[in-house]
Amino acid sequence: MLTQIPVWRDGPADGPTNMAADECLAEEAIALGGPVVRLYGWTATTVSLGAFQPVAEARSEPAIAEAPLVRRPSGGGAIVHGSDLTYAAAVPKQHPLGGRPQAFYTAFHAALIAALAEWGVVARLWKPEEPDPRAGTNSFFCFDRRAEGDVVASRPGAAPAADDPKIMGSAQRRLAGAVVQHGSLLVRSAPGVGPAARHPGLADLWGSAVDPGAEHLAIRWLEQVAHGLGGQIVARAEPFTDGREDRIAQLAATYASPRWLERR
Amino acid sequence: MAAEPRFAKTHEWARTEDDGLVTVGISAYAVEALTDLVFMQLPAVGKKVKAGESLGEIESVKAVSDIYAPVAGEVVAVNASLPAALETLGADPYGAGWIARIRPDDSSQVAMLMDRAAYDAVVKSQPH
Question: Going from the N-terminus, what domains does chain A have, and what CATH number goes with each?
């Protein structure tokens, strides 16, 4: 019997609520004993910081002066959300994807590359042996960084090049009983932020070749993920937040607190 | 002669020293599984922890993991030089890569952790 992988699609929410729902998703993975996925949006262009990025660095970055900040429980660099497709996936620690970080990244990123190929988009997993024009720089933004397994896209009709843009990055929080991985597919360049915080998205690079809201792409992507795990996705009609409002509000209070945001 | 370290299922080790303090670190397996380490947050000296509570955090390739206290007690010392030399965790995980020293609430707690053979069996059962 195929593993059923529930997929919830949530409407826009603020940063603390989204981080809280992702943590709640990890609890759901433990309760169900298998992978779970949530796709979601943002009520405003929001910058999520990596778990240990200094908040002062964010506040001194003019390109994001107007954007609300939230600190993720996961690592990596800052992401400007609002014109991206954001996802969270969680597995119990004993799941095959729970053992080592890279296997979890690859499961979702390689599946995206396979799905993108159906739209004619050429993308690849970035490898550390590739030349990195940004090597040695301490980039604040996730999409200025390169890590093994990030998804980079070639430009239409062009051969793979060292400056191909990164279109998806993910990060993880490894909890005692589960691993939650969340990440961002950059659909188009973020509005309402300065040039330093704008990075070309899939639609900027490939135009009408890709469905503009990435709706169908998201489905095909998650079907590819499920296929790789020997399972199938089960689209849930209700939002993930339904019935979990109290728990999410409880967790969101922590993510909204100055103590959490300014921990570093 | 120092006692052998004992292990928690969450991959921390603990060793009772001659002065009764418990030295804590993370296992070689955990360091290897996490791969490239980039940041570590140590606990504050004086912090009181329960067994299984977060003692600190460590970031590897965009993945953040908690380091759990293998015993309950008070943190009395931390390896302050470690965050600037994270390679020490891989080079000498049971020696120079120690993370904290805890004054245990109950000195028998360490004996309740796994010995190396039992821990090795846990490691072999981990998903790869």
Answer: 3-261 (3.30.930.10)
Q: Taking CB atoms and an 8 Å cutoff, what residues of chain B touch A148? A: 61
A45 touches chain B (CB under 8 A): no
Structural domain tally of chain B?
1
Distance between CA atoms of A112 and A109, rounded to whole angstroms?
5
- For residue B68, give the nearest of A51, A99, A176 by CB distance: A176
What's the complex ipTM? Answer: 0.89
Say if residue A214's pLDDT is above 90: no
Confidence at A213, pLDDT banded by 50, 70, 90: low
Cβ within 8 Å, pair B64-A170: no
Please say whether the beta carbons of A75 and A171 come within 8 A. Answer: yes
Per-residue pLDDT tens over the stretch B78-98: 999 999 999 999 999 999 999
Q: How many CB atoms lie within 10 A of CB A30?
A: 18
Instruction: State the pLDDT confidence band at B17, using cuts at 50, 70 and 90.
Output: very high
H or E segment at B32? Answer: helix B28-34
Q: Which residues contact A131 (CB under 8 A, 6 or more apart)?
A: A162
In a domain, B123, yes or no: no
Total Cβ atoms within 10 A of residue A229 = 20
Q: Residues for chain B: how many in total?
A: 128
Give the range of the structural domain holding residue B64, as residue numbers without chain letter.
6-115
Q: What is the pLDDT averaged over residues A77-98? A: 94
Nearest CA in chain A to B52: A176
